[in-house]
């Protein structure tokens, strides 16, 4: 996405910075509020949160930050 769409940061790294747990809460709220299936939380988000992989704040998310 950085190269193809000229975004300063990729979508998965942005998720890690914001926090995957925060993203999951927002998506669940949108799904409940609007009832639209496009807002249904993905299985990947739920699995990451269950495993405690919240992104930068936990040291692991879509990327591994424990070695930095």
Structure, briefly:
The chain is mainly alpha-helical. The protein contains 3 helices and no strands.
What does this structure look like?
This protein has 68 residues and is mainly alpha-helical. It has a domain at 11-50. It has helices at 11-18, 20-34, 43-50. α2 crosses α3 (43-50). The longest helix is centred in the middle third of the chain and has 15 residues, at 20-34.
Overall mean pLDDT: 93
Distance between the termini: 23 Å
Shape: flat
Poorly predicted ranges (pLDDT <50, ≥5 residues)? none
Helix/strand/pairing category: mainly alpha
Q: How large is the count of helical segments?
A: 3
Number of strands: 0
Residues in β-strands, percent:
under 5%
Element order: H for helix, E for strand = HHH
Radius of gyration, whole Å:
13 Å
Q: Could you estimate the helical fraction of the residues in percent?
A: 40-55%
Keywords summarizing the entry:
68 residues; mainly alpha
Q: How would you summarize the topology of this molecule?
A:
Elements: H1 11-18, H2 20-34, H3 43-50
Helix pairs in contact: 2-3
